[in-house]
Amino acid sequence: MKKVFAFVAMMGLLTFGVNQTINAQETAAPAAEEVAEDNSTDSVAAAEPAETEVAEIEEASETEGEGLHKIIKTKFIEGSAGFMSLVAIAMIFGLALCIERIIFLSLSEINSKKLLEDIQAALENGDVEGAKSICRDTRGPVASICYQGMMRIDEGLDVVERSVISYGSVQASNLEKNLSWITLFIAMSPSLGFLGTVIGMVQAFDDIQKAGDISPNVVAGGMKVALITTIFGIIVALILQVFYNYILSKVEALNTDMEDSSVSLLDIIMKYNLKFKK
After folding, report:
1. Residue 50 — φ and ψ, nearest 5°?
2. Cα dihedral 45, 47, 49, 52 sign
3. Positive or negative CA dihedral for 47, 51, 52, 53?
4. CB 142 within 8 Å of CB 175
5. What are φ and ψ of residue 36, in 5° steps?
6. How far apart are the C-alpha atoms of 1 and 95, rounded to whole Å?
7. What is the rounded distance in angstroms from the CA atom of residue 242 to the CA atom of residue 163?
8. Residue 36 vs residues 11, 42, 259, 271: alpha-carbon distances, Å
9. What does the pLDDT read at residue 215?
10. Do 78 and 231 meet the contact criterion of CB atoms below 8 Å apart?
11. Which member of 30, 37, 76, 226 lies 3.0 to 4.6 Å from 200 by CB, making a disulfide possible if both were Cys?
């Protein structure tokens, strides 16, 4: 859009010069020659700044395209590569754990209502082995809990209930696996940033002591390192916190689904016992 605007402006200047030339020719022939020469000179002079402006706009657009990458790279280097690398490592490991948990939890989600309907349909026909096969062939913690309950269907409802509750605790622990490491990286990121801040302040005071002056130029380097490391540490912590809260919401949803499915499974098994074990 900027290039188009500059081109239109240049064409407008040229058109204005041509119109002035035509009007001068209609007034007087001798004067027209002088005006034409003046206007051609003005047009060339106007075209040169316009071309310069177009070149500057093209350079600005190229700078904007690479601006974010260059800014991040520059600030990373300015913020002391040692501490910035530690913050980057914390972000990489934290994101890796978050992605692993999100994939695991997404694969653990199933249509538990359909699973229970299939189990109930199999038990209504007295097909216990078919119900076990349905649970065994279905992924996720809900299916695993149902399978543990079906394995003890002949031992009584109380045994089934204890088995479901115990195995449900195991599955809940599996869902929360590695969350403590994610919280560790969430806490480490701003802490590393603050550590860089303290070291940057110490560096600033060392520079003041060496220079014997408190001018802004002396303390600017250390203060810059301090602020950049703090900013990056807080940004990393915020990113990981968003992923962590999303993971917690999925864990809570799966725990609720396991509890509801366990209650429904016990009801289905009770109906089976009443029908086939009178």
Report:
1. -65, -45
2. negative
3. positive
4. no
5. -60, -45
6. 38
7. 35
8. 17, 10, 91, 104
9. 66
10. no
11. 226
Q: Measure the CA–CA gap between 88 and 110, rounded to whole angstroms.
A: 35
With contact defined as beta carbons under 8 Å apart, do 226 and 204 qualify? yes
Q: Which residues of 236-271 are buried (b: 16+ CB within 10 A; e: fewer)?
A: bbebbeebbeebeebbeebbebbbebbebbeebbee
What is the crossing angle of helices 81-108 and 29-78, to 10°? Answer: 80
DSSP 189: H
**C-alpha to C-alpha distances, 275 to 92, 126, 268, nearest whole angstrom:** 56, 9, 11
pTM for the whole structure: 0.67
- Quote the CA–CA distance of 101 and 175 in Å, as a whole number: 8
Tokens of 272: 């089976």
- Whole-number mean pLDDT of the chain? 74
Q: Is 83 exposed, middle or buried (0-12, 13-18, 19+ CB in 10 A)?
A: buried
| Highest mean pLDDT (candidates 58-72, 117-131, 247-261) | 247-261
CB contact set of 81 (below 8 Å; sequence gap of 6+): none
